Amino acid sequence: MNVFRTFILIVVMIGLAGGPARAQQPERPQTPPPATQGQEPPTQKPPPPPPPPDDPTYKETVVVSASKTEQQLVNAPATMSVISGKALEAAPSNNYADLLRAVPGVNITQISARDINITSRAATSSLATSQLAVLDGRTLYQDFFGFVMWDFMPSNVNEIKQIEVIRGPASAVWGANALSGVINVITKTPREMEGTSFLMGAGSFGREYNGDGARSGSLVYGNITHAQVINDRWAYKLSVGSYQSEAFARPTGMIPGNPAKTLYPTYRNTGTAQPKIDLRFDYDGANGDRWVFSGGRAGTDGIMHTGIGPFDIKPGTTFGYGKVNYSKGALRVQAFINALEGDATNLVAVDTVGVPVTLDFNTKTMDLEASNTTVVADKHVITYGGNLRYNKFDLSLARDENQRKEGGAYVQDEIFLNDRARLAVGARVDKFTSIKDPVLSPRVSLLLKPTADSTIRLSYNRAFRAPSAINNNLNTVITNAVPLGLFNPAFGTSVFRVPTTAVGNKDLVEERMDAYEIGYTGTINNRVTLTAAFYYTKLTDEIFFTQTGEYGRLTPPAGWPAVLGIPAWAGGLYDRGLRFPTSFTYLNLGRVKNHGVELGVDAAVNTTTAAYANYSYQAEPDPNFALSELNLPPTHRFNAGVNYAGPRLFGSASVSYVGEAFWQDVLDSRYTGTTDAQTTVNLSVGAKWVDGRYITTLKVVNLGNQQVLQHIFADVSRRQIMAELRVNLPK
């Protein structure tokens, strides 16, 4: 930490000793306009005159996620990345894993045709629980486990205005589960996309593994979107879509990098079917107030991976929501309900009589939130708000808790010290019925501005994740089958099931992360944006699903056949390296230190072409317990790409490199392993016909057809080719 503190001191001295600011000063605090999600965020100063047609200048990027109020990206008190609507239009995939993979510092695993997990600045997992995801301010994570099911995103990619990614802790305004960051998806309003469009797409993907010659799989998707402005008050949008994919290939043979030389378990892999419908009404009042009413329903099936193995989510599993937003000026009030219902069957774990472990779930989440921003003495921009949340659970694997209440409140003051410096100070307090004490999440960010278009940011954040209902109340038994005929042919095909209990822990406390960061964001000649960040984090009381006992060499489980005796157990299994756990539970384990560096450049080459490149370094975690308890993220990640958007032709090309990673979060130590470094190239080419009424696009993911495992337990990703036709009907 001495080097870190010295670095902070040097940066502060450079910032304060910088030359005179440019004539264009940073925006002064004003009463901000409403932070309406899905609406083009206005800037806090009059827009500059439009540039000449041949001048590829940037439009100022305005974000709302960092403080829940509108501000320029360069002045945000947190490190952020923004995926613009233009980048989404030219993206080589509609998959959220592929869309977010190019963001520096973000680790992503796609483990099955439907299962996506995302974590910023730390290793992700088979069931990531530390990254908050929201759509127009409504949380998408499933409260019973705190993870995100991205297949329940009701909006199609063409409806998205931009995606804002906070890279780092954000509980100071967003509360629980924003431990490693926030992904905020902001959609277009009905007025911004008036008209009717149809999208049809189909594709195929490779399923060959180690030269087995398996046939290719297929996928098909489509959506219809209709938006209409009824009058100067009312507008609405209706979208209906569907995505279907066959199963990806499963790896076979020995798990790579596994010291126990364990074979992959065999099971019938499945694809996914994801229908969805979404409806939104906007009302613009005469006095500047706005109401937004929205609701939708989505379905899914396919594989969900967990610590006790993969579950097959059954058809008929649905997620529905309803939401009401009110805003006037900077005041915003939101109420929503999320409802999930379905069931799933484990494909590996069975109980003591050989029946697969099942998970039936019926959950409802109700949330009421309010926030406001005001200006005091022309120097303070104060944002404040809070929420109340109620969860109702009916979980077959966690019967001991059927409801949970929580609430929180926050305040942040952005203080304009002078034209070269501002200070953002804030905190949030949250209380859960499942946690004994309230949780405080403070934030302090010092922003130094050598020029109006550049910012050096020094920040401290504390964030947390509360134990979920599953963490506290899981209660099941899984078994490992031992063929008894291996020891005595008289047993034939009989098996003995070695039982392992998997239980929750009601004494868990919240995970807490303290994060220190030095960041820089600057724009050169309004054409090139440079970003850099160095971060150091300390994660305390992280919640792990961990083995807490093992059958000994001379202590076989109860019921082991007496005729075989201890010698068969000791010499036949234990001495051959087949060790069986007696129990798993969730524990708060010590502390883990992490640090890393992120560098990025985005450039407007000319009026039609933009390019980007970024690099991320993540050091090996430093825990005060066994390193083998952790997933280890790739040390190096690199992304580069170019987007072209001409009057008729458009497209993109990108390359992504991800280093070697280690995984241990599925089942027991027999299933740990290492995935190799991988480089993938993606490409899209499109054309507009008849004044843009018809748009055709060819998209290719993993152009080189590399055999990619994004997690040691993941399906195999190979080349994917998709063809799309979009039809825009006349208004």
The CATH topology turns out to be Maltoporin, Chain A
- N/C terminus separation: 61 Å
Secondary-structure-derived class: mainly beta
Radius of gyration: 26 Å
Our estimate of the beta-strand percent is: over 45%
* Broad shape: globular
Major sheet characteristics = 22 strands, antiparallel, barrel
Summed over residues and divided by their number, the pLDDT gives a mean of: 89
Low-confidence stretches: 1-26, 31-47, 49-58
**Care to count the β-strands?**
40
Count of distinct structural domains: 1
CATH class category name: Mainly Beta
Q: Any idea what the CATH architecture is?
A: Beta Barrel
Can you describe what's shown?
There is one protein chain. The protein has 731 residues and is mainly beta. It has a single domain, classed as TonB-dependent receptor, beta-barrel domain (Maltoporin, Chain A, Beta Barrel), CATH 2.40.170. The chain has 6 helices and 40 strands. The chain has a 22-stranded antiparallel barrel. A 5-stranded mixed beta sheet has the order 3-10-11-6-7. The chain has a two-stranded antiparallel sheet with strand order 1-2. A hairpin with a 4-residue loop joins strand 36 and strand 37. It starts with a helix and ends with a strand. The N terminus is likely disordered.
